[in-house]
Amino acid sequence: xxxxxxxxxxxxxxxxxxxxxxxxxxxxxxxxxxxxxxxxxxxxxxxxxxxxxxxxxxxxxxxxxxxxxxxxxxxxxxxxxxxxxxxxxxxxxxxxxxxxxxxxxxxxxxxxxxxxxxxxxxxxxxxxxxxxxxxxxxxxxxxxxxxxxxxxxxxxxxxxxxxxxxxxxxxxxxxxxxxxxxxxxxxxxxxxxxxxxxxxxxxxxxxxxxxxxxxxxxxxxxxxxxxxxxxxxxxxxxxxxxxxxxxxxxxxxxxxxxxxxxxxxxxxxxxxxxxxxxxxxxxxxxxxxxxxxxxxxxxxxxxxxxxxxxxxxxxxxxxxxxxxxxxxxxxxxxxxxxxxxxxxxxxxxxxxxxxxxxxxxxxxxxxxxxxxxxxxxxxxxxxxxxxxxxxxxxxxxxxxxxxxxxxxxxxxxxxxxxxxxxxxxxxxxxxxxxxxxxxxxxxxxxxxxxxxxxxxxxxxxxxxxxxxxxxxxxxxxxxxxxxxxxxxxxxxxxxxxxxxxxxxxxxxx
Amino acid sequence: xxxxxxxxxxxxxxxxxxxxxxxxxxxxxxxxxxxxxxxxxxxxxxxxxxxxxxxxxxxxxxxxxxxxxxxxxxxxxxxxxxxxxxxxxxxxxxxxxxxxxxxxxxxxxxxxxxxxxxxxxxxxxxxxxxxxxxxxxxxxxxxxxxxxxxxxxxxxxxxxxxxxxxxxxxxxxxxxxxxxxxxxxxxxxxxxxxxxxxxxxxxxxxxxxxxxxxxxxxxxxxxxxxxxxxxxxxxxxxxxxxxxxxxxxxxxxxxxxxxxxxxxxxxxxxxxxxxxxxxxxxxxxxxxxxxxxxxxxxxxxxxxxxxxxxxxxxxxxxxxxxxxxxxxxxxxxxxxxxxxxxxxxxxxxxxxxxxxxxxxxxxxxxxxxxxxxxxxxxxxxxxxxxxxxxxxxxxxxxxxxxxxxxxxxxxxxxxxxxxxxxxxxxxxxxxxxxxxxxxxxxxxxxxxxx
Lengths: 509, 450
What we know:
The structure holds two protein chains of two kinds. Chain A is of the alpha/beta class. Chain A contains 16 helices and 15 strands. Chain A has helices spanning 10-13, 52-63, 86-92, 95-98, 110-127, 139-156, 173-180, 213-220, 242-251, 284-287, 354-390, 411-414, 420-429, 457-476, 478-483, 495-500; strands at residues 131-133, 163-167, 184-188, 201-202, 209-210, 224-230, 255-260, 279-282, 302-304, 316-322, 331-337, 395-396, 406-409, 436-437, 447-449. In chain A, the strands form four sheets. Chain A has a seven-stranded mixed sheet with strand order 1-9-8-7-6-2-3, sandwiched between helices. Chain A has a four-stranded antiparallel sheet with strand order 12-13-15-14. Chain B is of the alpha/beta class. Chain B contains 13 helices and 17 strands. Chain B has a seven-stranded mixed sheet, with helices on both faces. In chain B, strands 13-14-17-16 form a four-stranded antiparallel sheet. Chain B has a two-stranded parallel ribbon with strand order 1-15. In chain B, strand 13 (374-376) and strand 14 form a beta hairpin. Chain B is globular. The N and C termini of chain B lie far apart (59 Å). At the A-B interface, helix 2, helix 3, helix 4, helix 5 and helix 6 of A face helix 1, helix 2, helix 3, helix 4 and helix 5 of B.
């Protein structure tokens, strides 16, 4: 990587007359121009002209400025950057899948439908919840679907209710989602261990009292439509009072949404449907190893209890069993059931990010029940190994037992005026992608590390050694850390100017 | 398990440093009663060989076709080999969202180039790093229009919009009691101007119109923009077939204030409907209301040009419940495919492909109309999709085509009762003359009206 210091914008390489694509010979008469004159395409201003080789070199060179999972540990907390098996890619590229048309009659896409049905069955067993939709394209889309299910449940009972409760440690998508579904967000305070506070919490700095869950449920009661809770929470700690939280919310018929971003800690070990969760999403691009793709596509299936199943998005994939003679193996056929009168409607144009769902089922079949559990346990071991090796050098803000990720704070290094951002940028110089930083907001200068199950001992040791060296550098040469990174293609970027005077596309000079 | 770097000796060493006897001891934070006391009731692990075979068997259960004459929002186009080769590089497909710019310049520069090209296609000034798909792009466009228009709460939606986009709009507007979606009818296959004018009023924030619409017809954006702008509303063009941008003028140049839709055609296969590529392009004045990730150009400490995610004050991870949208993960890798596609095609390729699509569709229509049971319906200029009325038996037609491994066009009656008995046909550059002749030949043999 980083072989070249600069690859210009493709527009600067464009030369009129070059072609990167040859068209087939036209074997029918040329098109008649039936367009009204003002609707004829007049031209392009930026579309570049290059040969195929130049385009390939451009994207190859640019790629070398990226860091991928195959380059090494990608310790982004809450993002679950695990190995992306090549089998999954190969399967998703099978023409039987890629050429299939979403408007084709069900009888012609039985393979797709069986695949979707099978994946649903896996997700039901993994979550302990009987209803599934695979339509949402990403975690946030899953959240929105889930909250709309909650809303439909209450509307069916006569009132949509007003409030969604969300812990202050939650992902930003949670409050944004609740707002998009027409709800008001009321924040739940955390205890020092990151778990949800039942009692009111007094801020030690400004003395402000923040109402705990018990107070909010008492005061808001049936105004509460539900709560969105990440479990394990964003500091990697299991909400150990989850059952009590569920019971309390259910006592006012408020529903429990679980953000499944951290499900990699629970698969095969505990099931949300067994501890009171009504509805949740899974991030298949986290838990089920589908690639992150530089920002997507992901998939955010939603699993729900029987109370919410009537409201699931249409269509629902169902299996019909064909009656056969005695002693014969029953035959199944699959179809999209569009007849769901209480459904919230469609949440994706077609049936979701199908190609991602193909990869997810491939992951499931590869792992099996035993492999899924082994992966969970290994992810927890890896995170706790890093915790054991780095605590002391880095401050552990929360000392509760953590699962698949560990959150440190920069308070030790801050004494030398070295902060989380400096540590993160210095990791780049050492050849690592930094962890998630400054999140969750409840930990000052958070460094949130999630190694996943993909890392072996050597890789973990090398990463920990580097982190320890950076802690030492912070004491001995803090200024060097303020300068980091110095070995990447670029140094720190001026993000303020980028936002104040935005340049969002190239323009011809 | 081949994906786990596990061995008895190393596993022991890890546990010893942690100071626990076994991995299960680390589950102490999960209360005993909440743990699963059994193994998951699922098959056990499969070797690569076994799983590849299982998945291949599923893929083979789908019917394969010599030719598909079906579009309706998912188009089969040629995909240059360079795209799969590039996207298959781990640096692209395994990377995370480029939150750490110094180690993500590849992704960031690509998105900046992609944004430039989407703006070029649409004739607008600002776009984002992608949205999920055409339907959700319509939702984001409509919600953004409501924010931009301020204190206007009605969005008019042409009946010519993809019916599933309209379904997704309905789902997402349903929770907002204060917002109203109102349908504008069709006349001769395009938005009915009289109905539009009757429904335009001071509360209308935006009007969403297909360009071309679901029936394949081009809407005259210039003519629609007059009354829409006079009423103080925004015109949002919705394009489900991005190849049309090589044929029809960029919506931003003929009156659209926002352009959104589906760009899967640029370098992707139909893929049973996903992952696809939603896009939304807007005017510069509205840039701070756009949803999703946006990349901007800036300098590093040494004055070198680079790229960062910017205008993040709009986004959920900063603004939480006041964000412009909840979107986080988008369709990054599909946008990369589109970017590579557009760079390979260039202006001549996009124009040439569009001309071929138009030519093939015109030829298909001409040949189909030679059949006694096919009849023209009133319509406007089209691109690569068009509607014909079929006087014969729809089921017999379907059956005859499938028997010869041809997938016919869409039976429109399912979505438009007023078009019962009509078929939406599609042809692209992939349809050879021979495929078209085979289709016509097969249809000629379909038994006459029952």
